[in-house]
Amino acid sequence: MSASRQELRDLVAAFRTHLEARSRCGALGVPRGPSPVTSPALSLAEPDAPEEPTTPYPTPPPVLYDEGQVMHSGRGLTALRAEIGDCQRCKLARGRRHIVFGMGHPEANLMFVGEAPGAEEDEQGEPFVGPAGQLLTKMIRAMGFERQDVYICNVIKCRPPQNRNPEPDEIAACEQFLRKQIAIVQPRVIVALGKFAAHYLCGETTPITRLRGNLRTYREIPVMPTYHPAFLLRDASRKGEAWSDLKQVMALLYHMGLR
Ligand code: URA
């Protein structure tokens, strides 16, 4: 390929990246440069046409998907993260360091949903990186996956003070983002870690000791409720039950032809 053709391709790629970045920031188009037609007599502009908006990045950013027509990909997740912005929708915003959005494969077949970030997650901005996260990583590996093969997130994206339970108004403000993450990733199976995720995704308040191991659905996606890894760190005698729940998930994925 000639040097000038490569340069043109690089330019187009750079411009596309620039447009995507502008779009994520909420820009609705490219600012018009000076018109090549400079003579007032030839100008096509109406004499009193409304002025261009002075702010090039109007807020709020446009929603680049809706749940009926999602971008099933990393771009959909990037758009969703931009929609969350510097979220102030609930009181947890005051004490958080980072919004812990989620991480992993944007088109994962398997999704893990926890409760809310803890201290280390708040510090690093990534879900399940503290002690409970290390156990979750072992559970994922025991299933034959790596963290980057699956998608990991929480019901609540900001750390509650002293790791207290999320409150109803906080769940109400944040649940839309989990709903949209699921719509974008479109996992084939979800593992609900602990009672908050299980109650939200299963739509029932059965105690986790009875709910775990019993397959439910969330919008037709199979959900396996199991114990939260933090609980398993406190009571190792429950690990066998959690492993049997995960084995059910592995069998389900195998049945779906995904393993
Ligand atoms: N506990 C959770 O529920 N989520 C995390 O990300 C970390 C600990």
Describe this structure in words.
By secondary structure, the protein is of the alpha/beta class. The protein has one domain (56-255): Uracil-DNA Glycosylase, subunit E, CATH 3.40.470. The chain is built from 9 helices and 6 strands. The chain has a 6-stranded mixed β-sheet, with helices on both faces. Strand 5 (216-218) and strand 6 form a beta hairpin. Helix 2 runs antiparallel to helix 5 (168-185). The relative contact order is 0.11. The model is unreliable at 17-65 (pLDDT under 50). Uracil binds at residues 114-118, 121, 127-128, 130, 132-133, 154, 230.
| Strands in their spatial order, largest beta sheet | 1-3-2-4-6-5
What is the total number of structural domains?
A: 1
Number of strands: 6
Number of helices: 9
The main β sheet shows up as: 6 strands, mixed
The proportion of residues in beta strands is 5-15%
Using the coordinates above, name the CATH class.
Answer: Alpha Beta
SSE order and pairing:
Layout: H1 3-24, H2 74-84, E1 103-104, E2 110-114, H3 119-124, H4 131-142, E3 151-154, H5 168-185, E4 189-193, H6 194-202, H7 208-211, E5 216-218, E6 221-226, H8 229-234, H9 239-255
Parallel strand pairs: 2-3, 2-4, 4-6
Antiparallel strand pairs: 1-3, 5-6
Helix pairs in contact: 2-5
